[in-house]
């Protein structure tokens, strides 16, 4: 009976996509319906005029937009109540059409297919991937999809790119924090031998509540609360009073809570990279270390996004770099997960939907057990480089808070003119290169095989595949 229940369980990815579809539909319909019926509060503007004091030339210079919110042409105006749903569809189609004509949009869209392949290989039944890790990486798709309606709302209501609308930007970005937390908890639970943590239904439910809160916020922020273009995310809680610094902030500066969200995703992702490395040693399958290397370009993408905000969204090429790193990262993630799957017995025959074992009926129970996460296959050593949960939480929170305050107010104290100038490309490139290089060096120092000149094979032929020597050896 137990294995039958497992077979009937709907895949997490299907649940996620369906749930997001419902939340997104409710959010978008509510937004457009309120526009059509004229229910906007006093002071809220539902036309396509720019509601910002930022110079229009600066706004155009900031294009292309971050993520999937690039909309180069104004969206159609709001029509009568009877055309509300049609207007919604037109907005979505216009958003995708504009994305397809922009290099950033092309790169971001192209990155979706390798990411789906990555999820497929990561979820191979014999990988023994911690379920919460698989769920977390799948949940990332909701963050990507959330940028579509969020970008449309930002552009159609305020005439701004998503990165310039703080409350919209911070709300959507929070889903990325949720994603990384689940990945960290999944790996940590497996490494500690805690199956309940590695496959935790409560964490999943919290993630869905988080998603619902995001959808409700996006749907109600403008029509019911009347939040303006630059309303601060979470009301800017924790911010130092305005006027403390001699140099004023640009109107599109990220609020402190928004910086907290951004920095938390960086530190959580770095922790996840470290835990993936440990998971390789704990499982005895060194191919998992390739996942850490595969996550590196994604980290570079995050650093690029932060750098774009450090310079107040004034240097457009950074977004192209972010999009390129995203595409490269999804490709390397796909390769890394494929190597893990092949090392565990995956073959091309797995792609045959009509294939399967000839003895499927007699072995169905055994196969279902093989698909379940087996914590006994993970060697645990709680005393080895595994700080306690409270200590780890404190470290991440402390790093996030310190980095957020230093970033937001440090650039106002030290050469504010440089950070507010669109001509600071050299410094921006340096800010991206230095931290990413430090992470590369850290991983390299832990890769004794690479230091000795042995590079991992990009493709493996099976569980017995070995690395390839490349330096000074015949």
Can you offer a commentary on this structure?
The protein is mainly alpha-helical and about 475 residues long. The protein has one domain. The chain contains 18 helices and two strands. The chain has a two-stranded antiparallel ribbon with strand order 1-2. α6 (about 110-120) packs parallel to α13 (about 315-345), α8 runs parallel beside α11 and α12 runs antiparallel to α13.
The structure class reads: mainly alpha
Low-confidence stretches: 1-20, 22-100, 358-362, 366-370, 464-474
Number of domains: 1
Q: Radius of gyration, Cα only, in angstroms? A: 24 Å
Q: Secondary-structure blueprint of this entry?
A:
Elements: H1 2-8, H2 12-37, H3 56-61, H4 84-100, H5 103-110, H6 112-122, H7 131-158, H8 166-191, H9 195-198, H10 201-220, H11 256-283, H12 288-310, H13 317-343, H14 364-371, H15 389-413, H16 416-419, H17 425-446, H18 448-451, E1 454-455, E2 468-469
Antiparallel strand pairs: 1-2
Helix pairs in contact: 1-14, 2-4, 2-7, 2-10, 5-13, 6-13, 7-8, 7-10, 8-10, 8-11, 11-12, 11-15, 12-13, 12-17
Short descriptors:
two-stranded antiparallel ribbon, 18 helices, 62% helix
How would you concisely characterize the structure shown here?
Helix content is 62%, strand content 1%. It has 474 residues and is mostly helical.
């Amino acid at each position: 009976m137990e294995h039958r229940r497992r077979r009937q369980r709907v895949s997490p990815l299907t649940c996620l996509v369906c749930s997001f579809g419902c939340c997104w539909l409710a959010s978008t319909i509510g937004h457009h319906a309120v526009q059509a019926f004229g229910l906007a509060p006093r002071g809220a503007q539902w036309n396509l005029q720019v509601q910002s004091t930022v110079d229009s030339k600066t706004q155009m210079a900031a294009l292309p937009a971050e993520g999937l919110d690039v909309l180069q042409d104004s969206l159609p105006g709001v029509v009568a109540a009877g055309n509300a749903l049609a207007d919604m569809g037109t907005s979505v189609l216009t958003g995708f059409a504009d994305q397809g004509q922009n290099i950033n949009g092309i790169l971001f869209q192209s990155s979706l297919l390798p990411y789906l392949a990555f999820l497929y290989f990561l979820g191979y039944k014999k990988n023994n991937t911690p379920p919460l890790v698989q769920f977390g990486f799948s949940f990332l798709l909701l963050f990507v999809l959330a940028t579509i309606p969020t970008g449309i709302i930002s552009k159609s209501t305020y005439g701004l790119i998503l990165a310039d609308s703080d409350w919209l930007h911070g709300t959507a970005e929070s889903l990325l924090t949720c994603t990384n937390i689940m990945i960290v908890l999944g790996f940590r639970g497996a490494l500690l031998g805690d199956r309940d943590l590695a496959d935790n239904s409560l964490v999943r439910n919290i993630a869905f509540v988080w998603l619902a809160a995001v959808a409700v916020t996006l749907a109600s922020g403008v029509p019911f609360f009347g939040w303006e273009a630059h309303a601060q995310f979470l009301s800017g809680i924790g911010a130092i009073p305005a006027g403390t610094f001699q140099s004023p902030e640009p109107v599109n500066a990220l609020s402190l809570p928004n910086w907290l969200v951004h920095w938390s995703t960086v530190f959580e992702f770095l922790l996840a990279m470290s835990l993936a490395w440990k998971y390789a040693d704990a499982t005895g399958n060194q191919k998992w270390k390739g996942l850490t290397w595969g996550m590196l370009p994604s980290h570079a993408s995050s650093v690029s996004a932060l750098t774009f905000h450090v310079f107040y969204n004034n240097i457009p090429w950074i977004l192209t770099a972010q999009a390129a790193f995203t595409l490269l990262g999804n490709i390397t993630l796909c390769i890394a997960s494929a190597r893990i799957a092949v090392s565990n017995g995956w073959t091309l025959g797995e792609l045959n939907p009509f294939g399967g074992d000839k003895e499927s009926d007699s072995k169905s129970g055994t196969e279902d057990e093989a698909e379940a996460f087996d914590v006994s296959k993970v060697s645990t050593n709680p005393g080895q480089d595994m700080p306690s949960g409270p200590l780890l939480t404190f470290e991440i929170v402390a790093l996030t808070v310190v980095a957020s305050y230093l970033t937001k107010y440090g650039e106002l104290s030290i050469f504010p003119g440089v950070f507010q100038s669109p001509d600071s490309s050299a410094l921006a490139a340096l800010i991206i290169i230095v931290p990413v290089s430090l992470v590369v060096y850290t991983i390299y120092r832990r890769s004794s095989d690479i230091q000795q000149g042995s590079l991992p094979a990009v493709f493996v032929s099976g569980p017995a595949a070995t690395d390839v020597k490349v330096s000074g050896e015949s």
